[in-house]
Amino acid sequence: MKKATKIFLISLTAIIITVGAVATYFYFKTSPKRDIWNYVPNDAVYIIETDNLTKGWNKLSDSKMWKHLISDPLFNSIQESALMLDSLIKDNETLDMLFKNRPLLISCHLLPKKDFDFLFLVDLKQAGKFAFIKNYIGGIVSFYGYDMGREKFEDTELLIISDKSSDDVFYISIIDNVFMVSYNKNIVQNAIINAQKQSYIENDKNFKIVSATINDNKLFRIYANYDFLSTYIGYYLSDSQDLLSELKRIFAWSAFDIELDDEILHFKGSTILKDSARSYIEMLSRIEKGPIEAYKIIPSDFALYLSISFADYMDLFTNLKNEFKFSDASNSESYEKTLKRVEKMFNINLEEDFFSWIGTEIALLKLPPTPNSREYDILTIIHTKDIEKAINGLNKITNKIKNRTPIKIKENEYKNFKIYYFGLNGFFRMFFGKMFAKLEKPYYIFMEEFVVFSNSPSCLLDMIDAYEKGRILENNSEFKTFLKQFDDEANISIFMQGPKIYSHLYYYAKPEQKNNIKQSREILSSFQNIGFQLVSKKQNLFENKLIVVHNADALYESELEDIENSAEDLYIAEFDSLLEIEKPEKYEDGKTCKIYWDEDSTQIKAEGRIIKDKREGMWRYYYENGNIWGSLMFEKDEPTGKGTLYHDKKESTSKAQATFEDGKIEGTYLEFYTNNEPKSNIKFKDGEPNGEAKFFYDSGNIKIEGEYKDGMKKGKWKHYTETGDLMNKEKWKKDIQKK
Fold first, then answer.
1. Which of 117, 351, 515, 737 has its CA 20 to 30 A from that of 490?
2. How many degrees, rounded to 5, is the angle at CA 258 between CA 255 and CA 259?
3. Tens of pLDDT along 332-384?
4. In terms of C-beta density within 10 A (0-12 exposed, 13-18 middle, 19 or more buried), how is residue 341 classed?
5. Among 242, 312, 246, which Cα is nearest to 282's?
6. What is the C-alpha separation between 89 and 95, in angstroms, rounded?
7. What is the DSSP annotation of 110-130?
8. What is the b/e burial string over 38-65, where b = at least 16 CB atoms within 10 angstroms of the residue's CB?
9. Same domain assignment for residues 494 and 577
């Protein structure tokens, strides 16, 4: 976000340095009017456009969404710079004439070492006819603490502005009516070169098609170029290169017009595919759209829900069978040939036993992380035309597979749901594409008119738990209200929940990334609901819609829901919460002091002794309703000995027990359900899991057992049903599962 702050500094400085020149020398000259689009370099990742930068800023800054975002220091610095700029323009008639209500383009460009920067282009229109402005800049910029240098490039003068108090340098060029600025010299130089020839972007046929579908009357418009967007996304999702390569191979351009309704962002436009790219997405653009169904059984706490819909799956199947080829580095094989090869191997009819019963939707689902989950754990939900036909067909296929493979896995049952094993390696990648590549030899259940597959038995158990308790989207009025803003039928729909996506990003982030992600926790979580939809208009062209709902309290509400739903996260973070409670500014040394929930409250939050500004002895902590929350012993401000957390109940039953040495958890760490049954039993050393680990059902029966070393999973991990049957075995080394 530092770059964003710099962008406003660029704009502010550029305006300031023209004051002296314009006021001193008011001279018009005849010059051509240039289109600012000609200056956008060909390698733009995305481009933001507005015809009225003043009106656009006013609309954004008046919204409730922006007023919350500026509570974050990064956005607040943007706000301060923008307000200074706005005030400067309003107080100066000449500047008002120069910059107010002008068209603006902002383009993003990739740089080496996984970096990027921006180019700002402003169309000064007739105000661009002021001559000799640059001749007066030197004296003005020095007054404001800047140095200025000059440099010729392609017969065009570059102004090099450097901040005397920092290492910041930015580059300005003014050509006729076009004002351009960037922190990167190469970007400005590329813009100058680009203007000497026809605009590559505006003459791109795919760009023309999508840009023609959006409304020029809207305040903002945005264009995305997938040739570079996939690389840009890869800066943040380095483990998703296969999918990003597919994104680049298949998609060409997207264009959206944008409306801001206080706390809701509406994006509407179109996406076009590349003509030469054969893919499932391209096949979907040819068939009739279908309804969204899987939300009827999806847990309310989902992180990501991807829906692929169709009026009749057999239309897609026919197209795939007739035209599609599977490719790898060495060969390609037609869909139909692959189909026949698998059928011959297992003596089955896949069209009859599998594909014929698929209904109107195939969905991919990511749930929030738990202590036992893996980053690549997924659920796939297939809607059926006839659930009995699906049961019979899958039973036939799995029986044939069992007869051909040495692996014998017993069917299990959990809360009246039978859990089956589909032991065919690579099936879902083979017939549904790379997106389903992690769904290797999955387990599956039947639920209502759906078949649910997962590469993790734990995910299936979590889904059954949510379904049994009614915590599903079908019963979630907030989600159903959000869903009504989209078309009832589509080809592709994607839904995300900000707080759950944040949890996923943070939980699986690399250690060096966690701090940056955590700093943006509240802002990332405040985008409560995000939905994206593609609806086929004709071959290779989709109409698309993106809606983002902002809620400043989304994180709090999500955390409250997690507590109420007894989420299976470890409670260790609650010990951290106790330790983070700030000591009072005033206290009597050596005597018991009390900390209250707020200044006007009489409800105690914590109480204990402070000696020479350090907590000593027993400290007790309380929930806001007065129930005991926890207790810790301190020695010179460090927790020591036994620490206990309690469930929020009058009976004060134990929730977690830990032993502290030198401020870190050491030895056996225990957690309990509200019925006093054990929830987890984990060995700790130096503050992290190190040794045997067991997790239990609330019945007291073992659920998962394994071992940690230095905080990472190692060795064998076993999953059990609630009745005690072994369901799954995994091997781990340094937190990576062995194949």
1. 351
2. 160
3. 456 777 778 887 888 888 889 999 999 999 999 998 877 556 777 889 999 99
4. exposed
5. 246
6. 5
7. EETTTEEEEEEEEE-GGGGGB
8. bbbbbbbbbbbbbbbbbebbebeeebeb
9. no
Q: CA 339 to CA 336: how far, in whole Å?
A: 5
Residues paired with residue 381 on neighbouring β-strands, in sequence order: 363, 452
Q: How confident is the model at residue 110 (pLDDT cuts 50, 70, 90)?
A: very high
Of the candidates 692, 694, 642, 704, which has an alpha carbon nearest to the alpha carbon of residue 672? 694
Which structural domain, as residue segments, surrounds residue 173?
2-203
Tell me what the pLDDT averaged over the chain comes to. 80
Can you say whether residue 511 is alpha, beta or left, with left for phi > 0 and alpha for psi between -120 and 50 degrees? alpha
Helix (H) or strand (E) holding 493: strand 492-497
Beta-strand relationship, 736-737 and 726-733: antiparallel
Mean pLDDT of 711-734: 85
Higher-pLDDT residue of 619 and 560 is 619
For 123-179, the pLDDT digits (tens) are 876 544 444 455 555 555 665 567 888 899 988 888 888 877 777 788 888 887 888
Domain count within the chain: 3
In our burial notation (b when 16+ CB lie closer than 10 A, e otherwise), range 397-418 reads bbebbeeeeeeebeebebeebe
Cα–Cα distance measured from residue 403 to residue 422, given in angstroms and rounded to the nearest whole number: 13
The proportion of the chain whose per-residue pLDDT surpasses 70, expressed as a percent, equals: 80
Q: How many CB atoms lie within 10 A of CB 154?
A: 10
Please, how many CA atoms are within 13 Å of residue 152, restricted to the half-sphere of its CB? 2
pLDDT at 116: 87
pLDDT band of residue 481 (cuts 50, 70, 90) is: very high
Find out whether 526 and 500 touch, Cβ atoms under 8 Å.
no
Last residue of a domain, one of 175, 203, 231: 203
- Among 203, 227, 260, give the residue marking a domain's end: 203
Identity at 568, one-letter amino acid code:
E
87 and 190 assigned to the same domain: yes
- CATH code, 638: 3.90.930
107-139 b/e (C-beta count within 10 Å ≥ 16 → b): bbbbeeeeebbbbbbbbbeebbebeebbebbbe
pLDDT at position 625 is 87
Q: What is the C-alpha end-to-end distance of the chain, expressed in Å?
A: 40
Element (H, E) at 39: none
Query: How many residues in the chain?
Result: 739
Structure tokens at 381: 């939900």
The Cα-based distances of 589 to 592, 595, 609, 613 in angstroms read 8, 15, 8, 8
Alpha helices per DSSP H over 101-184: 137-143
Tokens of 645: 């957390």
Please tell me which residue, 95 or 86, carries the higher pLDDT value.
86
